[in-house]
Each structure stands twice: as C-alpha cells, then as structure tokens.
C-alpha cells in the first residue's frame, strides 16, 4: 500500500480538482460521509451517548461539518465545537459549516477561555470525540486556545476518531509538533500517510482506515510516491504452490557463514530459519572448533568446518569459503562471526568476489563499517540488515541521529552504495537502491532480544534461495518475521518472547499464507 507525504497528497488533490474538475466540495463530502459510516460501524455504542465534533478553520474542519451532518441524519445526537476562526468565505469548509448552521445543529464557538469551560461541559455529555481541528498541512506546534482544547480532551480520555490525522501530529515524520490528541481510530483520506506508521505516530493514530474519496487511480499514479506499507500482497507471490514433481534442487541452496567462540548460536539460528523458510538445501559453515555443536544443532543442514584461529575464522578460511560459495544461490554472512582479523578479511573478500546475493548481518556489517569502499567492489546483490547501532557505525554518526531519521538514513545509504538496507527496529525500514522503501507494520517490543536478527537474516536468505528478488525477499522477510513474532507473543507474552519461540512459530505463519494462496475446498466452504 502506498504511503503519501502531506505534499504528495496535496498534489494529488490539486490534480483531481484542477485537471479532472472534481470539485473540492465533492472530495470533502466523500471524506466526511466515509468517516461517518466508519463511526457508525465501529463506535455506535459510544456515539449513542452523543458525539462532540471539534472543527478547525480549514478543510479538516470542513470534513468535520460533513461528518456532523451525516451522523445527525443517522439519528445520533451531534454537538459541534468550532475551534478558532470561521472558515474562509467561499471555501468548501464554509459551505459545509453553512449547511450545518441551516440544519440548526448545536454549535459552540470556541474563541475564549469561557468557551473552553463550556466545552468541558459538552465533553461530560458525550461518548465520542471526533477530532477535525488540524489536518496534514499542520507544520507548527499548536498553541493558545487550540492547545487548551487538546489538553482538555486528553484529560477526559474518552474515545477519539481523528479526521485524516490526529491534530498536532506530523503526517511526514509521525512526531507530534507540540500537543497532540491520541486517537482510537484515524480515518485518513485518499492515501495513508507515512507518519501514521512511524513511531510514535503509529500509537497516536490507533487503527488507521483509508477512506476512498473517489480520486481515480491514474491521478495517484502521476505522482512519484516511493513509500510503501508492507502488507500481504507483498508476500503472497512468494507462496505459489510447488510443482508435484519438484525436488530439493528446485528450491535453491543457501550458505550460512558465521560463528565464533561464545557466539555459535547466531549462525545456527540463521541456518534454522533458512531451512524453515523453505530453502531446498542449507549449508552451515563455522570455524572448525564449532563444528561439533553445529552438527548437533541443525539436523537438516549440511555442515562445513573452516580453518580456525582461537575460535574464530582464520585468514586461511577465505579460500574455502569462496569455494563453497561458487555453487550457492545466496549467502548469509556475519551472524556471530566476531571481529577477529581473519573474520574481517573473510567478509571483505566475499563481498568483493562472490557473485551470489549476500545477506550481511551483525559483525559482517561491522567488518565493513570502517571502509565502505568494499561495497563498490561487490560482484552480487548486497542486503545489509543493521540495527540502529550498526547503521550508525556505517554512517559514522550516532544511534540517536539514526533514530531521528530512520527513513532518510536507510534510503540515502541504499542509493549511494547500491545495496538493499533493512534497518531493523520498531517499524523496520527496507530501502532499495532505486529510492523505493517499505515500512513494516508487524512485530512487537518483545522482539527486542538477542537472536531475532539472526532469524530474520536466515529467513531472507531462505526466500532468496528459492528465487525471490533480494528486495522482495527483504520486504517479505521482515513482514513474516514480525507476524511470527506477534503470534509467538500471543502465546508466551512479550517478556518471555525469544528468537527460538519465533522460529517455532514460523511454520504456522507459512502454512497460513500457503492456505491463502491455495485454499482447500473446506476453506472455500468456510
């Protein structure tokens, strides 16, 4: 699903109004009516106690007046609080305000401290608030009486439906510009907005529902929109039924290279994830001293012990690792590999000489952080899966700066270095070299624990082994990984959630998606 910035949505609206000659008041009518229907569907009990609609002076307020009219026509008791100045004369918002006035809907002008006190009395008598004060065009902190209204609504803590976006929230960054109203549901128009799926906007928006305001798809297609929200349609194409005469050679061979003394679990979990993802064959290559534990841990994988120096890869391992790579469809490189000189040399050599796609994680990323020129020598596709700290090392900046601009960091690095970046964390960002990026909505805070990244690396590698494009595999892998984490969370809770429990859940996730792609007759009957 495409995600727009505020400016992109304004451009789309202008194209629809100026070139297709769809009147703005028609778009406003569609927005308000669609929101009223969603309120009637999801908040009927709350609305039966009365609906207070907060209308600002702009188009967001205009949407609110339309909502008020439709809810009143449905039989709900509606009260309007007009916050700030009246809408401009001859504007679409003024048109709909005039209609509300002619219908004699109760309307309170909130332009003084006394009016704020009166608003408090209205809040006591209602069960639902509709926030139509400020929309996606807001770029400043809300101040004055409007800020007092927000604080008052927040004090009451009753259910809120936001119109397009909660007042006070940036549509582009997901960060509040100042005081903001948390919503239980946000009814957004035309396209969803980027900030609705970034922290903390994802929490402040509640459930996001996109309302069709009847802008033709060809208008949207004229505007370059690089942002996407990952969803089932990004995953389903990878789950077509396997041919009945298939054999393991049809589904690729993944090589996992990693491990060092004290970190043997990382490559083992990566190999287990690649197996669970459906790779036909998986080979796990570890330092020789870790071979016994590897042999006992992943029964389905082939094993290879490479030259060892004190529990880490020796420089002599490079030649053998390159030889192993020649017959592989994908290599997962770096889980648990450590920072010994031999391991660093191995990582850099594989990037410069291996033609198969490389999924690089953990200390594989740290091995190139000091000298990114090796990426220019890459022979195959590169997928980097950094957490924010590793991303900061790649960019020679701080973790805080990365977290302040996760999207910018990911897309800039991907473009400059011609790689796919999977920036992990809440709302994982996947960026490709062409400037496109995806925000992943799945996953939970319980996944902030050791080993989760190793599972993700193996999952992406397993999908690539079966023929998925590296970008597609990264997008789908992050999504599936998060779903598995959410299901595991529901079974064991957030605190007890481990990478192992996510691994155990992956077969259930894959089975559910296979059934969506190829339902059985019993499923059709249901």
Description:
Helix 12 (317-325) runs parallel beside helix 13 (341-353) and helix 13 (341-353) packs across helix 14. The strands form 4 sheets. The protein has a 10-stranded mixed beta sheet, sandwiched between helices. Strands 4-3-2-5-6-7-9 form a 7-stranded parallel beta sheet, with helices on both faces. Strands 1-8 form a two-stranded parallel sheet. The protein is elongated, with a radius of gyration of 27 Å. The chain has 2 domains: 3-225, YjeF N-terminal domain (Rossmann fold, 3-Layer(aba) Sandwich); 233-516, Ribokinase (UDP-N-acetylmuramoyl-L-alanine:D-glutamate ligase). The protein is built from 21 helices and 21 strands. The model has no long low-confidence stretch (mean pLDDT 96). With 526 residues, the chain is α/β, with parallel strands linked by helices. Helix 11 (291-297) links the parallel strand 12 and strand 13 (302-306).
Tell me the CATH topology of the largest domain: UDP-N-acetylmuramoyl-L-alanine:D-glutamate ligase
Assembly annotation: single chain
Structural class: alpha/beta
The biggest beta sheet reads:
10 strands, mixed
In total, the number of strands is: 21
What's the rounded overall pLDDT mean? 96
Helical content class: 40-55%
Question: Any idea what the CATH superfamily of the largest domain is called?
Answer: Ribokinase
Shape estimate:
elongated
User: Largest beta sheet: what is the strand line-up?
Assistant: 10-21-20-19-18-17-16-11-12-13
The proportion of residues in beta strands is 15-25%
Low-pLDDT stretches: none
CATH architecture of the largest domain: 3-Layer(aba) Sandwich
Q: So how many helices? A: 21
**Terminal Cα span:** 27 Å
CATH class identity of the largest domain: Alpha Beta
Number of domains: 2
Radius of gyration: 27 Å
């Amino acid at each position: 699903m495409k995600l727009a910035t505020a400016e992109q949505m304004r451009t789309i609206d202008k194209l629809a109004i100026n070139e297709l000659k769809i009147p703005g008041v028609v778009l406003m009518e569609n927005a308000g009516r669609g929101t009223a229907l969603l309120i009637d569907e999801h908040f009927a009990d709350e609305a039966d106690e009365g609906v207070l609609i907060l209308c600002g002076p702009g188009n967001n307020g205009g949407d609110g007046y339309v909502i008020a009219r439709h809810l009143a026509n449905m039989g709900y008791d509606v009260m309007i609080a007009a916050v700030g100045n009246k809408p401009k004369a001859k504007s679409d918002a003024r048109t709909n305000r005039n209609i509300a006035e002619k219908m004699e809907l109760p309307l309170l002008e909130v332009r003084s401290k006394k009016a704020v006190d009166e608003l408090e009395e209205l809040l006591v008598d209602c069960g639902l608030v509709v926030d139509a004060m400020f929309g996606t065009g807001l770029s400043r902190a809300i101040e004055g009486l409007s800020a007092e209204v927000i604080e008052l609504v927040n004090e009451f803590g009753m259910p809120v439906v936001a119109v397009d976006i909660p007042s006070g929230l940036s549509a582009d960054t997901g960060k509040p510009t100042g005081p903001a109203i948390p919503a239980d549901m946000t009814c957004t128009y035309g396209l969803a907005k980027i900030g609705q799926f970034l922290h903390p906007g994802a929490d402040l928006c509640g459930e996001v529902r996109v309302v069709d305001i009847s802008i033709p798809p060809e208008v949207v297609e004229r505007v370059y929109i690089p942002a996407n929200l990952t969803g089932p349609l990004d995953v389903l194409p990878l789950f077509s039924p396997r041919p009945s005469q298939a054999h393991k050679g049809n589904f690729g061979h993944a090589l996992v290279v990693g491990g060092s003394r004290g970190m043997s679990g990382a490559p083992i979990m990566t190999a287990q994830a690649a197996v669970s993802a459906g790779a036909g064959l998986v080979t796990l290559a570890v330092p020789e001293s870790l071979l016994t534990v590897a042999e006992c841990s992943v029964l389905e994988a082939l094993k290879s012990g490479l030259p060892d120096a004190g529990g880490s890869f020796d420089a002599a391992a490079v030649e053998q690792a390159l030889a192993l790579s020649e017959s592989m469809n994908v290599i997962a490189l770096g889980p648990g590999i450590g920072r010994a000189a031999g391991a660093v040399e191995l990582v850099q050599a594989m990037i410069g000489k291996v033609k198969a796609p490389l999924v690089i994680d953990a200390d594989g990323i740290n091995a190139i952080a000091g000298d990114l020129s090796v990426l220019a020598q890459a022979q195959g596709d590169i997928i980097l899966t950094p957490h924010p700290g590793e991303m900061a090392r790649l960019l020679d900046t701080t973790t805080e700066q990365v977290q302040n601009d996760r999207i910018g960091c990911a897309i800039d690095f991907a473009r400059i270095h011609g790689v796919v970046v999977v920036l992990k964390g809440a709302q994982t960002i996947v960026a490709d070299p062409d400037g496109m990026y995806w925000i992943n909505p799945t996953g939970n805070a319980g996944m902030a624990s050791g080993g989760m990244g190793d599972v993700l690396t193996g999952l992406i590698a397993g999908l690539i082994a079966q023929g998925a494009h590296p970008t597609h595999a990264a997008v789908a892998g992050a999504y599936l990984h998060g779903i598995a984490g959410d299901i595991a969370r529901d079974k064991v809770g957030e605190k007890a959630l481990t990478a192992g429990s996510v691994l155990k859940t992956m077969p259930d996730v894959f089975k559910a998606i296979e059934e969506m792609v190829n339902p059985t007759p019993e499923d059709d009957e249901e």
